[in-house]
Amino acid sequence: MVVCTVGLVSLAELMAVTLRMQQLSQNSTQAVRLAQDKIDELTTLSFATDLSVACGGSLTADVANHNDVPGNGAGYRRRWVVAAGPDGDTNLREVTVRVIPDVRDARTASTYSLTTIIRGLPVAC
Fold first, then answer.
1. Cα–Cα distance measured from residue 98 to residue 95, given in angstroms and rounded to the nearest whole number
2. Can you tell me the distance from the alpha carbon of 118 to that of 84, in angstroms, rounded to the nearest whole number?
3. Quick one: average pLDDT of 41-52?
4. Which of 21, 23, 65, 75 yields a CA-CA distance of 20 to 30 A from 110?
5. Which tens digit of pLDDT belongs to each residue from 57-94?
6. 4-35 burial string, b = 16+ CB within 10 Å, else e?
7. Using CA atoms in the order 118, 98, 60, 82, what is the torsion angle rounded to 10 degrees?
């Protein structure tokens, strides 16, 4: 009876860990998807006219035109930084998007950052 009880308690603990890991994996996947969605959106904008791709922003604080709360990503905030592209090429921008979970979800979600280079019409940064 004791051996059976120990085995069942161990199995219950294993199931709890598995559920937490599955939730963490699901939240990470959602964060990656939200970061990629923002990169895709910024890629379609004009460097000359859209403030979202103007140089600037912050990954640690909300800056006007460089942060949002995605409609399909309840529980997350996105911030992005736009910088001059490599070698000073005015056709390119280096963009870093950070997806930050709400405090209440911090146990099962982590901050995720994605950096890429996007191309547009030449405008100095």
1. 10
2. 10
3. 88
4. 65
5. 999 999 999 999 998 767 899 999 999 988 888 889 99
6. eeeeeeeeeeeeeeeeeeeeeeebeebbeebb
7. 10
Which amino acid is present at 14? L
82, β-bridge pairs: 56, 95
Altogether, the residues listed in the chain come to a count of 125
How many CA atoms are closer than 13 Å to the CA of 109, on its beta-carbon side?
A: 23
Distance CA 106, CA 92 (A): 34
DSSP 58: -
pTM of the model: 0.79
- Residue type (1 letter), 118: I
Residue 46 and residue 38: Cα distance in Å, rounded?
Answer: 14
Contact 107, 86 (CB under 8 A): no
Residue showing tokens 């963009």: 95
pLDDT of residue 83: 93
CA-based nearest residue to 79, from 56, 60, 102: 60
Task: List residues bridging with 81 in a β-sheet.
Answer: 57, 96
